[in-house]
Amino acid sequence: MYLRFFSKVFSVMAGPRPVVFSGPSGAGKSTLLKMLLKEFDGVFGFSVSHTTRKPRPGEENGKDYHYVSREEMQAGITKGDFIESAEFSGNMYGTSKAAVQAVQAQNLICILDIDMQGVKSIKKTNLNPIYISIQPPSMDVLEKRLRARKTENEESLQKRLQTALVEMEFSKETGQFDVVIINDNLDEAYGKLKAALLQEIQKVKSTTKA
Ligand SMILES: Nc1ncnc2c1ncn2[C@@H]1O[C@H](COP(=O)(O)OP(=O)(O)OP(=O)(O)O)[C@@H](O)[C@H]1O
Ligand SMILES: Nc1nc2c(ncn2[C@@H]2O[C@H](COP(=O)(O)O)[C@@H](O)[C@H]2O)c(=O)[nH]1
C-alpha cells in the first residue's frame, strides 16, 4: 500500500520518460511525431534542436529547429549548453539542455528526433528515454520518399542515402532500440507507435487529471 503510494509520488516527481526517435532521413520520423503531437496535445512536447542547415520552405525558427551559424553552434557546445551534438550530411545538429528542460518543465513527454550518433551520445547520459527506431520498408522506398519530398539536391540526397544504410544496420543491433517500427503503411506504423507509447501516455493523462 505505502510502496504503491511512494512509487506513484516518485514517478510523478521524476516526470514522464522522454522518447527518442531515430532512423534514416526520410523514414518518416517527423511525419509520425507530428501525428502524435496533434492527437495528444498536452501529452507530448517536441525538443527543438539547433542546426546549422538552412530552413526548408514552411519550417519555422524556434518550432522546427533553432537555425544558427556554425560559430554560434560551436560556441554553445563549448559552453556546455548541449546534451549531444553531431555532424550530419554536412551540417551540425544538437539537442540543447534548455530544449529538453522546456518540455520537461511542463511535465510533458519530451520527444527527441535525432540521428544515430545522437542516440549513442544520449545513451551515455541519465536521460533514460524510450528508444524508437523508425525504418523504411526498403532503400528503394526511402529514395523515392526523399526525392518526392524535394528538400535535397542530388549531392545531399546521396549523402543521406549512404548514411541511411548505416542507420538501418544500427537498428538491427540487439538492444539499441526498445521498439523498431517499419513505416510502410503510415496508419499501421502510427498504430504501432501509439501502442508502444500507450503506458507513458496513460501515465501523463492520469497525473494531469489528478
Ligand atoms: N508511410 C509513408 N508512406 C508514404 N510516404 C510517407 C510515409 N511516411 C512518410 N512519408 C513521406 O516521406 C517523406 C519523408 O518523411 P519525413 O520527412 O517524415 O522523414 P524523416 O524521417 O523525418 O526525415 P528527416 O530525418 O530527413 O527529417 C515525407 O515527404 C513524408 O510525407
Ligand atoms: N544528433 C542529432 N541529430 C539530429 C538532431 N536534430 C535532428 N537530427 C537528425 O538530423 C537528421 C537530418 O534532419 P533534417 O531535418 O535535416 O532532415 C535526421 O536524422 C534527424 O533525426 C539533433 O539535435 N541531434
TrEMBL record:
Q: Where is the Guanylate kinase-like domain?
A: 16-198
Query: Which CDD domains does its entry note?
Result: GMPK (cd00071)
Record keyword Cytoplasm present = yes
Which EC numbers characterise this protein's activity in its record? 2.7.4.8
Which GO cellular component terms are attached?
cytosol
Keyword Acyltransferase applies: no
What top-level class of enzyme does the UniProt entry assign? transferase
PROSITE patterns xrefs? GUANYLATE_KINASE_1 (PS00856), GUANYLATE_KINASE_2 (PS50052)
Q: Which GO terms describe its molecular function?
A: ATP binding; GMP kinase activity
Listed A to Z, the keywords are: ATP-binding, Cytoplasm, Kinase, Nucleotide-binding, Transferase
Q: What is its main location?
A: cytoplasm
Q: Which Pfam families match?
A: Guanylate_kin
Q: Where in the cell is it found?
A: Cytoplasm
The catalysed reaction is: GMP + ATP = GDP + ADP
Q: Into which family does the record put it? A: Belongs to the guanylate kinase family.
Q: What is this protein called?
A: Guanylate kinase
Supply the source organism for this entry.
Hemibagrus wyckioides
